[in-house]
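Figure-free illustration: sequence to structure, shown twice.
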Amino acid sequence: MDIAVFYNEAEATIYTFEPDGNGWYRLRGAVTRMMSVYPDKETKNRDSITGVWSTNDPNHYATEAEATFEASFYGTGCFLQTYADDRGGVWEIVVDGVYTKTISTWSPIVQNTKVHSVFENLPEGNHTIVGTFKGDDPEHPPSSGAGTSRGWLKYGTLTTDKGIGRYYTHYVQETGLVSAFESASRKEFAFLCTL
């Protein structure tokens, strides 16, 4: 098993652990090497919705508080793409039932595609994002009157018309390395792995 500890985006020490047969993973080596970072992003449409929605492509919107959308993605972060105007309301976003963020789709000017970064640096893997429409933005009441805000979320076939985005960052170890330990070092590190 390799564990990378990054000093910056392009340099890391890679610690190599191997099982010892007794349930422990023991440190067998460590090298410092340059890393190439390859960020990627991709969009998709939501998987499901609940509550009252207007579904005219590409600018779908929830009109009822507590209406929801849900989507799954594989990656290390996520973002939303929405329409935004002076009728926009507030979404509460929860990823994996743990990470929470509030975003507003209100804008003083019309934005056909507004990108909202939700979370970066999530553990690499499968994730679930759930958005719950909370109604009017308390800092920016909708121009159409109290209680009439819209929870915008893009939906369509074009990349810019899909509401759910995922970030995925992968790293490639470059050739050339520097040992992080002296060869005669007696330092030992181990951890117990139980499933």
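We now fold a second protein in the same way, so the two outputs can be compared directly.
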Amino acid sequence: MRRIAATLAALVLLGCAVAARASTEAAEAMPIDQILWELGIKFLDVTIVAVLAYKFLAKPIAKAMEGRSEAVRRQIDEATAGRRDAEARLAEFQEKNARLEAEIQELTAQTGVDIEREQAILVEEGNAAAERVARHARETIRQELVKARAELHREAAELAVRLATEQVRTGLNEDDQRRLVGDYIKEMETVR
């Protein structure tokens, strides 16, 4: 959530910078109060777009990330259960070994080697499985975050460029601003 808010704040600042640049280029022929008014309107436009983007994009992204986190948690739980099963099997083998002490005295040397080898294999397999699942989960989370960030950056950049281009191209008046805000609201509703 914080990263989304930070991204939206960066977009607002980018929009302000674009608006300021456009205003300074036209400043030579306009009085300062008109420049400030246009800059304020442009800032308001960028803020509205940022708020709408946050409102409509924050929940779906957070929901997707939550779903992915739950899947990763499930995979880790499954790996932990597998490790517990392996440890339970090991404990079972050790218990049988203790009960059969009298019969095993003749085979102590061979049995000790077999138990240690089985224990090492089980622990190694359990650790390897847990590590594979954890590594896969970390990589999957990382990839999902990269995808979500890239998509958010791309959409935000497109939106900012469209807004800036439209504002510079048309030299917005009050009717144009109302129309543009209405168009963006309609467009954001269709995105839903």
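Summary for the second example: The radius of gyration is 31 Å.
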